[in-house]
Description:
The structure is a single chain. The chain is an alpha/beta fold. The chain has a single domain (about 1-249), classed as Rossmann fold, CATH 3.40.50. The chain has helices at about 10-25, 40-55, 80-85, 110-125, 160-165, 185-190, 205-210; strands spanning about 1-5, 30-35, 60-65, 65-70, 100, 130, 155, 180, 190-195, 230-235. The protein has a 7-stranded parallel beta sheet with strand order 1-10-9-6-2-3-5, with helices on both faces. Strands 4-8-7 form a 3-stranded antiparallel beta sheet, covered by helices on one side.
Amino acid sequence: MLLVIREDYDAISKLASSRISDLLKKNPYAILGLATGSTPLGLYKELIRLHREEGLDFSRVQTFNLDEYVNVPREHDQSYYYFMQENLFKHINIPPDAIHMPNGMAADIEEECELYEEQIIKAGGIDLQILGIGCNGHIAFNEPYSSLGSRTRIKTLTEKTRNDNARFFKNMDEVPKYAITMGVGTIMDAKSIILMASGEKKADAIRNTVEGPITARLPATIVQMHRNATILIDKAAASQLDQSLKIAE
């Protein structure tokens, strides 16, 4: 695991985008694992800029997203499919059939989870997985005490998660109760991982992830065991780390 600290959010977004750009130049057929939420927005904006201004080519790339709500139609403005279309896909030259996301409207969710795992394997596995991290150490929808060997599956959202998401919906009845998520084991199968975090609110989670013991209580700690993982954070997110670790800056 490599710890990289940069000045601010813009700096980590640009560094993450340069890693993806370098990968695509070496391997135009790369398989990217993507995340939603506020953390990767700067990364996606920079990828769009690189595509428009420097010709970064996505025409042979495939993508797999970490998760999707159950029973939220793709056209809903809070679906993760909609998020990815608005914030990345419709601005780059990626073929629609190269975009893979769990289908939260599938008639058989368990079968959909198994199919998603099979699609990742058939594609050759994920070359680079982008991750964010929750304040409680979750990655994707793998909340505290998720199995560290878990595969893609349906997860019941905690009340805290639902309450946090309530501001995006008209009322609590609309807030999803379930989501499909890649499992911790699925994520760890990626050939490389970049876990991004920004801001003081993430400082405690980053300290525990980097310095603490590996535990299902904080699923992100498993990244310590990955053979090619980078923790990419800004100075605010690094504020609680042991000073001796900051030589990675």
